[in-house]
């Protein structure tokens, strides 16, 4: 007979189920010898009941009230023995006051998901019709620690060396042209790793993969009859559990292993994985929304509430998570530590991160404890932390986000400046110079690595649509084109929408190449949107949050249709990777501190050494001295870049090189497709070393060899 550990010996029994008082920490459900420890916090509940289900069964097989002595402070804890780990689903009933005006919305009739559940069942297949009569639709389950990581660990690539690719899990491989066995899943991404490597990407940023409900706010488009769903997933049901509907094996409850396998394979191929995390609100919405978990467990703790008990709505989606309450702050920390340690995640991008710096009454904090805790957390010490430094309540902190020496930012000012410059707006040359340098005006002490540079992201026009549409065309969303941003800073190149006009299409491709070039020669960290490298279009829709349709998925046939774009993107990404002078971890000093005869960076115009800073200027050139690469620690080639956003060709006088060096042409976006960009090391000699005509709305890159 096997020995029974006396410290796990049951002391209580209920309907044949044996249990004893559990451990208060960690919160959630944790497997222990002979049983499972359940721990849940509520500051205002008067009682709690543990509800146990067999997987998939309509009704629970047991409900065990926590005895009074099992409550330690505000934590209910219980260890239950002899449970079938594989078949178990669990939840809680919380009893307490229903007094919304005081912040309490308890309802013991509702079975609540565990905020700390590591797996959520019940919605296991994408867009499978839910059972609306289910007494417990989002079912907490256990996760198992039997995955073989085979010595994998986060890659810890220096942030300045990253090229980020923002990706939607479902949209990446759902299109029939992807020819992927497990389309729209983590496994589908795994099959495309060779493509990501060939493109030159070394980091993917996944749009939300936490468990969310695609059926939330689902409706039929009255004009097209198409079903509109929560496609993007910015509405979290549970922060610890990966989305089962994003896993080919989700219907078998294997989403954890499938995601870990993807991450392990990406790491084997030198590709980091960032998660887009949404700690600003949850799927429970405002007072009209569903009670799923947080509201029924401790509404007043988890949400920011007005004095009347309604929900502050700094997220624009009905509620705002109360992130600077110590309990919620600890949950966010526990969550990120879990993803970093158990999933080997390399970094996190925080959606509407300005909310994380608001006090419980909504006012901005000068020293937000959550942001400070994340910055100094020992487990997250090597993770990249990236803020979307604004929120829907009007708090805009680009350049002023509380950084603690750790936080980088989505640089929205980079996006806006480059877009306006590309379409020919005037008065921008001085600001463009700042953006090209990694925005020292915004990040003087933090350095260029604080700037995540992008021209397009999931939220707004794709790069193709930026040069094909003057106005948004969101009619398919069923909101009379009232949703989505109006300030797109786009220009349709002379025709609204798709066209067969060869001159217009050549100009649009040239502008996409211009955008990619500027992005890759800017200091800071470049991020490109999934599909921009092949001319993906959303038909002018700049807010495709509800569109799970073929036109919104990545059409892989565009790789061949727009082969010139894909080839250009490949080469410009390789160029950045080959030249450390483009990836400085510190700001330029604007003088020669290594004795090369050239400053680390110099600006020029149509005349060498004489940039045109005037209000009407649409031209700017700059030269990076290769001897100053990485602060003078590495020797690189000197690079010259000329930007001409005037609509006519202009002659640029070139800086004279030291004897033995000559200018060679790496890229010229004004040239025909076969001549627009060259292989590294095979750049042709520039015939006239004194000057160069740069075509209208064009960019050139020269290398000194």
UniProtKB/TrEMBL annotation:
Name listed for the protein in its UniProt record: Glycogen debranching enzyme GlgX
Transmembrane segments: none
Location of the Glycosyl hydrolase family 13 catalytic domain: 134-576
GO terms for MF: amylo-alpha-1,6-glucosidase activity; isoamylase activity
Keyword Protease: no
The family this protein is said to belong to: Belongs to the glycosyl hydrolase 13 family.
Domain of life: Bacteria
InterPro entries in the record: GH (IPR017853), GH13_cat_dom (IPR006047), Glyco_hydro_13_N (IPR004193), Glyco_hydro_b (IPR013780), Glycogen_debranch_GlgX (IPR011837), Ig-like_fold (IPR013783), Ig_E-set (IPR014756), ISOA1-3-like_C (IPR048650)
Region (Disordered): 474-494
A Pfam family of this chain: ISOA1-3_C
Keywords, ordered alphabetically: Glycosidase, Hydrolase, Transit peptide
Low complexity bias spans: 483-494
Gene Ontology terms describing biological process: glycogen catabolic process
Entry annotated with the keyword Heme: no
């Amino acid at each position: 007979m096997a020995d029974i550990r006396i410290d796990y010996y049951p002391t209580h029994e209920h309907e044949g189920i044996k249990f004893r008082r559990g451990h208060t920490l960690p919160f959630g459900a944790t497997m222990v010898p002979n049983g499972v420890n359940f721990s849940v916090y509520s500051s205002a509940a008067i009682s709690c009941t543990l509800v146990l289900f067999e997987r998939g069964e309509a009704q629970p097989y047991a409900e065990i009230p926590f005895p009074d002595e099992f409550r330690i402070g505000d934590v209910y804890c219980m260890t239950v023995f002899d449970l079938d780990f594989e078949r178990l689903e669990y939840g809680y009933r919380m009893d307490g006051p229903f007094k919304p005006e005081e912040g309490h919305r308890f309802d013991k009739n509702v079975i609540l998901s565990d905020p700390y559940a590591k797996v959520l069942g019940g919605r296991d297949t994408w867009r499978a019709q839910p059972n609306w009569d289910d007494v417990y639709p989002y079912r907490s389950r256990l996760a198992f620690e039997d995955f073989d990581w085979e010595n994998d660990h986060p890659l810890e690539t220096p942030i300045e060396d990253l090229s980020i690719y923002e990706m939607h899990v479902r949209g990446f491989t759902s299109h029939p042209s992807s020819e992927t066995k497990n389309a729209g899943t983590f496994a589908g991404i795994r099959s495309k790793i060779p493509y990501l490597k060939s493109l030159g990407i070394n980091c993917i940023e996944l749009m939300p993969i936490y468990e969310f409900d695609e059926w939330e706010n689902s409706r039929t488009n009255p004009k097209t009859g198409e079903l509109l769903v929560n496609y993007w997933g910015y509405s979290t049901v549970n922060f610890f559990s990966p989305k089962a509907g994003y896993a080919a094996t989700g219907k078998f409850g294997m989403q954890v292993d499938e995601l870990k396998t993807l991450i392990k394979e990406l790491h084997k191929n030198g590709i980091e994985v960032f998660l887009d995390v949404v700690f600003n609100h949850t799927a429970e919405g405002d007072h009209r929304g569903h009670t799923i978990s947080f509201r029924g467990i401790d509404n007043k703790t988890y949400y920011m509430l007005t004095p009347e008990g309604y929900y502050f709505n700094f997220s624009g989606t009905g509620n705002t998570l109360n992130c600077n309450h110590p309990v919620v702050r600890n949950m966010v920390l526990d969550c990120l530590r879990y993803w970093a340690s158990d999933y080997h995640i390399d970094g996190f991008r925080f959606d509407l991160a300005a909310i994380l710096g608001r006090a419980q009454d909504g006012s901005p904090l000068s020293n937000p404890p959550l942001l400070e805790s994340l910055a100094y957390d020992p487990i997250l010490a090597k993770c990249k932390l990236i803020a979307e430094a604004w929120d829907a309540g009007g708090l805009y902190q680009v350049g002023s986000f509380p950084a603690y020496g750790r936080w980088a930012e989505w640089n929205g000012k980079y996006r806006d400046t480059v877009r306006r410059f590309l379409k020919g707006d005037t008065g921008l040359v001085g600001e463009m110079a700042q953006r090209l340098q990694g925005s020292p005006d915004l990040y003087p002490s933090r350095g260029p690595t604080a700037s995540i540079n992008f021209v397009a992201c999931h939220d707004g026009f794709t790069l193709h649509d930026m040069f094909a549409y003057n106005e948004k065309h969101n009619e398919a969303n069923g909101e009379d084109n009232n949703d989505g941003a109006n300030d797109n800073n786009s220009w349709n190149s002379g025709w609204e929408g798709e066209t067969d006009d060869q001159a217009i299409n050549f100009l649009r491709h040239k502008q996409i190449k211009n955008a990619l070039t500027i992005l890759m020669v800017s200091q800071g960290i470049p991020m490109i949107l999934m599909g921009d490298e092949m001319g993906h279009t959303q038909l002018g829709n700049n807010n495709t949050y509800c569109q799970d349709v073929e036109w919104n998925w990545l059409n892989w046939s565009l790789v061949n249709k727009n082969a010139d774009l894909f080839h250009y993107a490949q080469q410009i990404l390789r160029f950045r990777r080959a030249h450390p002078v483009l990836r400085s971890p510190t700001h330029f000093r604007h003088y020669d501190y290594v004795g090369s005869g050239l400053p680390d960076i110099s600006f020029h115009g149509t005349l060498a050494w004489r940039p045109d800073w005037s209000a009407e200027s649409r031209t700017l050139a700059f030269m990076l001295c290769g001897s100053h690469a990485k602060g003078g620690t590495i020797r690189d080639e000197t690079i010259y870049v000329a930007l001409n956003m005037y609509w006519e060709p202009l002659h640029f006088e070139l800086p004279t090189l030291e004897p033995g060096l000559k200018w060679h042409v790496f890229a010229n976006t004004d040239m025909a497709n076969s001549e627009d960009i060259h292989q590294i090391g095979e750049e042709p000699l520039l015939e006239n070393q004194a000057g160069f005509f740069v075509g209208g709305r064009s960019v050139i890159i020269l290398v000194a060899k």
